[in-house]
């Protein structure tokens, strides 16, 4: 796949307004500010494809990007933002669970977590849902440049051990949009999911 060719297609206010359940989708999820937009921009080699958020938690839209006519990247709204009312949050969590469970074209979920604060409750819930739905999961530990080499390997090991619980559907990588490490692994994993 040539991710450089990725284009914005549409924003959907909720799951029901997404494109027809055909072709292949790869979804990206993470807490607000985890570095999801930066990862999508790094993957697609574009500066402003996904909007890096100056106001975390504001965008509650699902952004749809087409890599090809068949393959879409789905930018799910960031979760865990405290200022979003609980009722809205609960509704969104339910919709997300439903999307992960019912979407036939969905092949895999990239869950982005700040390497300094990984596997928070909502992150675990997300990974758990995806695994229960039979999806492949790539836990992407972002902003890895913020840690020293040794802290980074320690964290990677710790998160990998924690994820053994989920079985072999879950892979874990360290990633930095800034320094571009982990980019090849992200790219090859998403590619693999698309052809499997
Ligand atoms: P999103 O809310 O998950 O889409 O997160 P963004 O991509 O907008 O990033 C949130 C903040 O983290 C921004 O200030 C980014 O500049 C910063 N950030 C994202 N990726 C990296 C990275 O790889 N390294 C560092 N040092 N900062 C990053």
Structural summary, described in words:
The model has no long low-confidence stretch (mean pLDDT 92). The protein has 196 residues and is an alpha/beta fold. It has a single domain, classed as Rossmann fold (3-Layer(aba) Sandwich), CATH 3.40.50.300. The chain has helices at residues 36-44, 86-102, 121-132, 149-163, 183-195; strands at 7-12, 24-30, 62-66, 71-75, 106-114, 136-142, 170-174. The longest helix has 17 residues, at 86-102. Helices cover 34% and strands 22% of the residues. It is built from five helices and seven strands.
Mean pLDDT, to the nearest integer, reads 92
Terminal-residue CA separation: 13 Å
Instruction: Write out the strand line-up for the largest beta sheet, numbering strands in chain order.
Output: 1-3-4-2-5-6-7
Q: How many distinct helices? A: 5
Enumerate the distinct ligands.
Answer: guanosine-5'-diphosphate
The gyration radius over C-alpha positions equals: 15 Å
**How does the major sheet shape up?**
7 strands, mixed
How do the SSEs run, as a string of H and E? EEHEEHEHEHEH
* Beta-strand percent range: 15-25%
CATH class: Alpha Beta
Please provide the count of β strands: 7
- Provide the CATH topology: Rossmann fold
Give me the CATH architecture, please. 3-Layer(aba) Sandwich
CATH superfamily: P-loop containing nucleotide triphosphate hydrolases
Principal-axes shape call: globular
Q: Helix/strand-derived class?
A: alpha/beta
Q: What are the segments in which pLDDT stays under 50 over at least 5 consecutive residues?
A: none
Pfam families: MMR_HSR1
Domain EngB-type G: 22-196
Keywords: Cell cycle, Cell division, GTP-binding, Magnesium, Metal-binding, Nucleotide-binding, Septation
Organism: Neiella marina
């Amino acid at each position: 796949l040539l991710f450089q060719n990725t284009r914005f297609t549409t924003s959907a206010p909720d799951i029901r307004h997404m494109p027809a359940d055909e072709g292949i989708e790869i979804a990206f999820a993470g807490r607000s500010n985890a570095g999801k937009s930066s990862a999508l921009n790094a993957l697609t080699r574009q500066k402003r494809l996904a909007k890096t958020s100056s106001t975390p938690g504001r965008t509650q839209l699902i952004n749809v990007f087409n890599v090809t006519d068949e393959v879409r990247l789905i930018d799910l709204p960031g979760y865990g933002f405290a200022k979003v009312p609980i009722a809205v949050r609960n509704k969104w969590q339910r919709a997300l669970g439903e999307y992960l469970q019912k979407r036939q074209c969905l092949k895999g979920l990239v869950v982005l977590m700040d390497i300094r604060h990984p596997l928070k409750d909502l992150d675990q819930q997300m990974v758990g849902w995806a695994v229960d739905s039979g999806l492949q999961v790539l836990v992407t530990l972002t902003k890895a440049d913020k840690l020293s080499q040794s802290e980074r390997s320690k964290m990677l090991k710790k998160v990998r051990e924690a994820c053994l619980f989920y079985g072999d559907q879950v892979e874990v990588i360290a990633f930095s949009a800034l320094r571009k490490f982990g980019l090849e692994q992200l790219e090859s994993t998403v590619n693999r999911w698309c052809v499997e």
